[in-house]
Design brief:
The complex is a heterodimer of chains A (118) and B (113). In chain A, strand 4 and strand 5 form a beta hairpin. Chain A contains no helices and eleven strands. Chain A has 118 residues and is mainly β. In chain B, strands 2, 5, 6, 10, 11 and 12 form a six-stranded mixed beta sheet that branches. A four-stranded antiparallel beta sheet of chain B has the order 3-9-8-7, with no helix packed on it. In chain B, strands 1-4 form a two-stranded antiparallel ribbon. The radius of gyration of chain B is 14 Å and the shape is globular. With 113 residues, chain B is mainly β. The termini of chain B are far apart. Chain B is 0% helix and 54% strand. Chain B contains no helices and twelve strands. Classes of the chains: A mainly beta (118), B mainly beta (113).
Chain lengths: 118, 113
Amino acid sequence: DTGVSQDPRHKITKRGQNVTFRCDPISEHNRLYWYRQTLGQGPEFLTYFQNEAQLEKSRLLSDRFSAERPKGSFSTLEIQRTEQGDSAMYLCASSSGLAGGGYTDTQYFGPGTRLTVL
Amino acid sequence: AQKVTQAQTEISVVEKEDVTLDCVYETRDTTYYLFWYKQPPSGELVFLIRRNSFDEQNEISGRYSWNFQKSTSSFNFTITASQVVDSAVYFCALYSGNTPLVFGKGTRLSVIA
């Protein structure tokens, strides 16, 4: 069983550009999560999907951020008009959905996409 | 509100020493889950353990052990006979109240050969 994969692993962009990241969860995991992690901090929740439905969004997810999971498999996270404050590691995780409530499952993380905004 | 405190920012030990990483949590819920993850330099968070609030039994897995004490709201993690490969940042996380996982700020462990 392959783990969670993310692409690209690194992205350098200029302020004002749009970027898109992709996450492929563990196969048959119906829950998918996005987190942001800045230096010296733990991951901070951004948003969560159950299948293709986006069930929760953090207030950290400003209107410049949009996430999709169109067929309930892979997901994309887009940041429009990037700002230097968006520089961070963006982590994706998935879980099986077998443990009941939305966040009680064990989440398995991908390697992350490190974004640098110049 | 849910909160996780990992007071130790960085710890250095010499190989083969035992080391304990502290985790203190806050929640008003009686049902909650606690997790530990390891983040090596490659960046990927590796799941180590999940424990629910009704199971206070301590757990041992090889060189790893966890001490869950509801009376002090702590879920500490001990590595016995540490190895260089244990060098990483370790995160404690809390789920409760149907809200997303809350992570502590992590403890960076350096094991020196």
